[in-house]
Amino acid sequence: MLRVLALASVVLLGIAPQASQAITVYTSWERHALVGSDIRLSCTFFSWRSISEDVSFTWRYRPDGSKDSISIAHFAGGEAYTDNKGVFKDRVEFVGNPKRRDGSILIKNLDFSDNGTFTCDAKNPPDIVGRPSSVRLLVFENLPIQAGVITGAIIGVVLGLLVLIVVIYYLMRFLVARRVFSLSVRSVPRLWGLCRGREQRPEPIPGTDTCLAKAL
Amino acid sequence: MLCILLGVLALHLLVFILLIVSTASSQWTVEARGHTDLWYNCHSDTQGYHCSQASNEDWIQAVQALMILAVVFCFVSLLAFAYQLFRLFKGGRFFFTSIFQILASVFVMCAAIIYTVMRPDSDKDYGYSYVLAWVAFPLSLISGLIYLILRKKD
């Protein structure tokens, strides 16, 4: 028993440092935007360690069809630095909150030349081992409707309405049946008043053909 | 009685098959070297036969949805007919069957009308899928109305 415990603790201690060194960066997969609009690209990370003072975010941009990427935004040591020379001059703003693991940037006034891949790399010393995550930006003149969205919506709404109507129909039938039953038990004096006005017919079997029995 | 039953069932099955063929085949508009809508846009040129997705516009998606709904409602009407044939009380009308069949015909009509009005190439010819949709509309309407006046005898 003691040996098992010792073995388990050694294994855990062996695994734990490996796990705590990896940092996982998350961004969206693909973003669509209209020409001339602004877009906020989000970047967040997961790390086993708490946020250090030296947390850093780096955003790189690689245009479509190019192999080189340039740095457009960097946050380190509590300061945000953005592109002041290249294509994104004065168009990039660091809007994230690194203390809350948010390293998002805001790109203003998009143009067709901004189509490309934006890569976010986050580091939380001593957690520095991790793969950067990329988000693809597509800039359109008019936002296209995705295939099948409207089709699915129309089909879903109509079939949903159909199911709803069927459910309501059976529910009403069920409720009406129950209400009739409870009504006749509660408002017996009212029924007696109704029954007195009715014409009397000879009963085939004595005792069953009363007005009350028929109402029930 | 049996003749009427078989005839009505045959008509219903015919409408169902017409709707399926019209929805599934992609021949709503044809031209000299290709065809298009509802789902694919195919044309043949010197390099061979190429197919791409039909356009994503909202009206085509509405036509797709309405045709699919028409097929679904026709099928549900067939099931309702089978159910009501054995479970309906004597003298009853095939109400649910008729309702679903008439709804299916309304959907086909809407789909065909939307396609006719919103089609961008007004000089190209219509294909057989389009024709079948328009044929399916009155047939399904008639089928639905027959179910409305049909009464169960035995």
TrEMBL record, chain A:
An example Gene Ontology biological process: myelination
Subcellular location per the Swiss-Prot or TrEMBL entry: Membrane
PROSITE patterns, A to Z: IG_LIKE
Domain Ig-like: 17-136
CC terms in the record's Gene Ontology section: plasma membrane
Record membrane topology: Single-pass type I membrane protein
Segments traversing the membrane: 145-171
Stored InterPro entries: Ig-like_dom (IPR007110), Ig-like_dom_sf (IPR036179), Ig-like_fold (IPR013783), Ig_sub (IPR003599), Ig_V-set (IPR013106), Myelin_P0-rel (IPR000920)
Predominant cellular place of this UniProt entry's protein: membrane
Signal peptide interval: 1-22
Keywords: Disulfide bond, Glycoprotein, Immunoglobulin domain, Membrane, Signal, Transmembrane, Transmembrane helix
Tagged with keyword Glycoprotein: yes
Family in the record: Belongs to the myelin P0 protein family.
The protein's name in its UniProt record: Myelin protein zero
TrEMBL record, chain B:
Membrane among keywords: yes
Pfam families per record: PMP22_Claudin
Subcellular location: Membrane
Superkingdom of origin organism: Eukaryota
Keywords assigned by UniProt, alphabetized: Membrane, Signal, Transmembrane, Transmembrane helix
Gene3D superfamilies to which the protein is assigned, alphabetical: 1.20.140.150
Keyword Mitochondrion carried by entry: no
Family: Belongs to the PMP-22/EMP/MP20 family.
Protein name: Peripheral myelin protein 22a
Organism of origin: Xiphophorus couchianus
